[in-house]
Amino acid sequence: AGDVSAGKAKSAVCATCHGADGIAIMPVYPNLAGQNAEYLESALKAYRDKQRQGGMAAIMQMQATNLSDEDIANLAAYYASLN
Amino acid sequence: AGDVSAGKAKSAVCATCHGADGIAIMPVYPNLAGQNAEYLESALKAYRDKQRQGGMAAIMQMQATNLSDEDIANLAAYYASLN
Q1: Number of structural domains, chain B?
Q2: Full domain range(s) for residue B54
Q3: Predicted ipTM?
Q4: How many Cβ atoms from other residues are within 10 Å of residue A63's Cβ?
Q5: pLDDT tens figures, A17-74
Q6: Would an 8 Å CB–CB cutoff place A55 in contact with chain B?
Q7: Contact A65, A51 (CB under 8 A)
Q8: Cα(B26)–Cα(B11) distance, rounded to whole angstroms?
């Protein structure tokens, strides 16, 4: 499983849209607080691998493009830990 | 905005994976309870329009393929109303 504190450190740019507490600043973005880590990993990898288009996917593809599997596991663990 | 009770009526099949209360039965599926309705609409349309691949997208494409815009708005309103 990912490292929550490493995920928190990595999450600064994510907070811009998903909120400092994982509650999105606009309703077109998903809340991430308390989401399942395994799902978050799957979604981030789908963005990274350009398997997700539509909606805000273009923004997320850019955000995810440089994330390593470890970054993704850490971010997922961090957001899953918020409630 | 969608109709929560119509969304609840439509959500029976969704509950199979996303849980009767919007908390997923397995961590590879997302929790939907309290998610932003606007995001949920965007995601469901992306599945319906086959813009999302990767992860469990294949299952969701099948589920979303016959949903009307009205169904999608109602389901989104219903899940956003759960907390």
Answers
A1: 1
A2: 4-81
A3: 0.94
A4: 17
A5: 999 999 999 999 999 999 999 999 999 999 999 999 988 899 999 999 999 999 999 9
A6: yes
A7: no
A8: 17
